[in-house]
């Protein structure tokens, strides 16, 4: 996946999109019990975790996605215990957010007749 693949045509960058997604979940209740976090890993890398409970993504299937390009260029995304989790290399955080964004966008598309 290239940097161009990570951008949605005419849309905000990945971090701006994630901020917007989070803001739309905040309803006075959700943010008190759920949320999202971005942490660093010691191998090195990033870990993104998004609570899905009480969101439009709650209960949606996500097939595990894994790509390993090199020691520091990798990504593993999955849904575990109603959380979207992505672990990735030190330069793959935008790609990790993109994986979540693409899944949300795919689930929002209407089913064909």
Descriptive notes:
The N terminus is likely disordered. It is built from 3 helices and 5 strands, in the order H-H-E-E-E-E-E-H. It has a 5-stranded antiparallel β-sheet with strand order 1-2-5-4-3, covered by helices on one side. With 113 residues, the protein is of the alpha+beta class. It has a domain of 75 residues. Helices cover 28% and strands 29% of the residues. The relative contact order is 0.19. The longest helix has 16 residues. A hairpin with a 3-residue loop joins strand 1 and strand 2.
Q: How many H/I helices?
A: 3
State the separation between the terminal residues, measured CA to CA: 31 Å
Write down the overall mean pLDDT.
89
Give the low-pLDDT segments. Answer: 1-8
List SSEs in N-to-C order: HHEEEEEH
Largest sheet composition: 5 strands, antiparallel
Work out the helicity level.
25-40%
The global form is: globular
Q: Write out the strand line-up for the largest beta sheet, numbering strands in chain order.
A: 1-2-5-4-3
Tally of DSSP β-strands? 5
Computed CA radius of gyration, to the nearest angstrom? 14 Å
Estimated structural class: alpha+beta
- Measured by DSSP, the beta-strand proportion falls in 25-35%
């Amino acid at each position: 996946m290239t940097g161009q693949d990570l951008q949605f045509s005419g849309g905000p960058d990945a971090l701006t999109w994630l901020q917007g997604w989070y803001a739309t979940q905040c309803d006075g209740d959700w943010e008190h019990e759920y949320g999202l976090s971005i942490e660093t890993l010691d191998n090195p890398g990033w870990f993104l975790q998004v609570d899905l409970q009480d969101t439009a993504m709650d209960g949606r299937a996500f097939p595990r996605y894994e790509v390993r390009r090199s020691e520091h260029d990798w990504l593993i995304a999955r849904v575990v215990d109603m959380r979207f989790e992505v672990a990735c290399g030190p330069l793959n955080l935008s790609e990790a957010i993109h994986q979540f964004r693409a899944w949300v966008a795919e689930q929002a598309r209407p089913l064909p007749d």
